[in-house]
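Study this one:
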Amino acid sequence: MKSIARFMMSLAAVLSFLFGTTVYSQSGESEDRTLSPYFFVKSDDPQVDQLPLKATSASVNISGVIADVQVTQIYKNQGFRPLEAIYVFPASTKAAVYGMKMTIGERVIHAKISKREDARREYEQAREQGRSASLLEQQRPNVFQMNVANIMPGDEIKVELNYSELLVPTDKVYEFVVPTVVGPRYSNRSSETTSPSQRWVQNPYLHQGEVPPYTYDITVGLAAGLPIKELECPSHKVAVAFENPTAATITLDPSERAGGNRDYILRYRLDGDRIQSGLLLHRGERENFFLLMMQPPKRVTRGQIPGREYIFIVDVSGSMHGFPLDISKKLMKNLIGNLLPTDRFNVLLFSGGSAVMSEQSVPATSENMERATNFIDRQQGGGGTELLPAYRRALALRKAEGYSRTIVIATDGYVAVEEEVFDLIRKKLGDANVFAFGIGTSVNRHIIEGMARVGMGEPFVITKPDDAPAQAERFRNLIQSPMLTQIKLDFHGFDTYDVEPLSIPDVLAERPVIVFGKWRGQPQGEIALSGTSGNGRYRETIDVRSVKPHKRNSALRYLWARHRIALLSDYIKLRPRDERVKEVTELGLAYNLLTAYTSFVAVDSEVRNTTGESTTIKQPLPLPEGVSDYAVGKMRLSEAPASLMSPLAGRQESYRLSRDQAVPAQKGSSAEEKKTVALGNVIVSEGLSEDAVLSFMQKHIGEMERCTAGSAPRGSIVLELTLTADGKIKTVKVVSGSLNNSNAERCLLETVKRWRFPANQGAREGTARVSLVFGSA
């Protein structure tokens, strides 16, 4: 048992170091446990179905500019014990969730909206009483959590939720997105002190490349109102059937049944590059709602662009490793390589800490552009995602006199500090405009769109490398010439109130101006939009009397309320006693909407689990397509689920850790040999083999242990080795951590420097980082 205990201590130290190594770390980790996702390890217990979610699907109806979506989740218990299933899933950032129902066999239970704490209390009471129940909570505006209690053996429970959203074209292109999976979020918050609503971050994930354990399907019925010119689904293989020039049905190809690991994206243009603009009216029982969409003037290209300063902030954390970081590099080369001679720029890279190319922006010369490209190219991706300190550091950089500053952020957005980031950008709005590029197949669109909106910029999402040049060109077009500024909206003879937004920001992209509101009396008078365009003063009017209220516009009440809630909560960090919390809660209850403070709960009247015992299962999520295992790994042993540790607890073998898994140690290295050095994670540059480096160091572990003889050092370090093409050690240094014995550390560096690795087949210099854990046996 002592050997097992020693192994557990060593494993804990290695796990705490995995994937957390980065040259940019500026401070040590807190001793408190932090919120962390973790890898799912399936138990061998046949009594428990650990994958209760069997299918998720969406049925979508798009009518004009309003999409109505029904999401169906099917849970089935194929084990022999009652289950409680917990499933974290994403939604559109614009979704107004207005309904939910639960079906058990022939029984249908419609959910009711309640205050969050009341809904949670009712759900937990039903669970303890043995009644089937479901609870839908909002953890973020685009992250929901579903709890389903007392799924009995053999049960199939269907949960359906309904939401509406508004489709706003950009550059005459409509885009409808259904997010499919929540990417792993990095958080440096303590798991002991955080609120319950933050703990969803601790969720199990499958390894990279593993397909979702549930099936995925989506069908879209599109009634555009105008002839459809172009239609594409760049994310999934689909079949399109046109009913007439203005309507089509889009179905998912059967080969995409495992396509729930990347966002579903549908794009279309209307004939003549027209867009749906104008006025929509709805007359309700108590309130009347309107939606105004007015097309801005055509873009006028400036002949002379004033000097600008750009600070490019690039996420190089673990979740960006591989595909996302490759896209970011391609994007940055395009953006930096096309700067004007009058521009200045800088580059800031961040993960757990940050590094800046220069302490102040430099001229956009060819030499500086090449310097920036090399600075970015060296990154491989690793460590946490500390976006907030990185943005603060960017703002603190010395500003170029007489230049307009723009900050460009490239990230997948896998952080849990959205509100803090929005709040900082809003407070510093006078210092810089913000343009956010979301990189990856399942981007956290909440933070990407939120940063751009509060920063008076535009959001961009790049899901594949081929998108980067087009998005970079779109970015340049936006910043060169705003389409409409100093915008004013006037209502003449049309009695309106509760109009949102109160002020309209500059129109940068070719998209309509959107205004929500309520109206009284009769629809009459006119609405006038005015501002300044490239050709001078601009004015456009709409005759309200020409528009008739229609029942099909009933979703306007949900969309207005959702927009109001977004302004109150999405972009301003709320304090518990803030009056805005009360207003958001009241809006959710009055309009039957899911919010941060209101939840849907459905409870069956029948007591089905008479024993009151059940097993809670967190449904494991697939990693988004293109995201590597490096996104999950900042995990301490004490945070690991029991299912990870129990298979190891009864085994008498010694283990070494390779990347993210424990595997049997090499033959002859039993626990009784009292090893004092454990190998951890290996990260190598392009051209080197992780396995080759790990195998070589395993063979030479005895040499490292000789440096510890008699001194019993303790601690963890990360070594960075620079290898020449013929395998010689060019440099070796400690880039993170330390030992409590300087002599042992010095001996270790001298020993490693004498090594000779096998010749590099790529015939090029490379680097390898290896984490080592020291502890007496």
Remarks:
- Confidence is low (pLDDT under 50) at residues 1-33, 634-674.
